[in-house]
Amino acid sequence: MQFQQLAYFLAVARTRHFTRAAEVSGVAQPSLSKQVRSLERELGAPLFSRARGNITLTPAGEALLPLAQRMLTDLETARREVAELAGVRRGRVRLGATPSLCAGLLADVLSDFHTRFPGIELHVEESGSRDLIRDLGRGELDLALIILPLQSSDPDFITTPILRESLVVASSMADPSPNERASMRITELRERPLVMFRRGYDVREATLRACRAAGFEPALAVEGGEMDAVLRFVEVGLGLAVVPSMVLKNRPGLRGTPLARPRLLRTVALARRRDVEPSHSAEAFRRHLNTYLLELPPEQLGPDLEVLISAVDAGAPERGRLSPSEDTAAEWEPPEHSG
């Protein structure tokens, strides 16, 4: 029994006409009829009743019909999956990410992805969200992990929010805790020296905006550092810093104190250009990233991280877009109201 014979059988079963089935299948009618008769001989039973030009399924044909449909569907699925695997066996992913994501989430994701797809080259650009969107628009990146919301213009971008994260106050474990409570108010930073990121960092703008909204300009002990430098400066006691919670992972010299309500939150999203279809390699990375996040254990997420995608999103096309009217890099969570 050959798959082509089953395809011809299904074509006749659908059209109930040998000539039309041959036309649909793109073969000569005598060739199709020969293959169907060969299938009937192999199965030892007629599949069609050909009385007076009426083509109907025999009991044997009725029994074969769902089996043939399933076999051909499985064949098509196998062909598609093999083609996809072949497509991502080799390739390249040009990925942009913010420094906090490179220092936190991305290393583990890339390690797992490289283990599964060792033939795919990974090119990572570390920069702020606005620079990454610019390079994505120029075609210099395939995907970018950015912080939402973000002002954008042409070209249009598709974004998928994947994580919501709390910003925390980092301090040195060698120093006393910033206060005696489990959390800090943003106003408590008024009299404390801060270590501040360089311009272009989303978290810098979020921190300054939050302090100004609380009615003060922060006092800066050190300004202008990259992520690793800021964390090291805090570790040696130069000051406090407002940082994404994920960057404190595997840093025993630092503690993270949550901000009391209203908390300072940020949303991480995966972005690509709307007018460019992702390559097999880029799509493989997107699915891998989503699956990785969905499989994170609750104890690793903790209270400061929330996964925003669902199991459906892990294999579904991206949805949503950047809003041209939004220009903030973090959001205030509304305060709790009692009574």
Automatic annotation (TrEMBL):
Keyword Nucleotide-binding: no
Source taxon at top rank: Bacteria
CDD domains: PBP2_LTTR_substrate (cd05466)
GO CC aspect terms: protein-DNA complex
Domain HTH lysR-type: 1-58
Family to which this protein belongs: Belongs to the LysR transcriptional regulatory family.
Name of the molecule in the record: LysR family transcriptional regulator
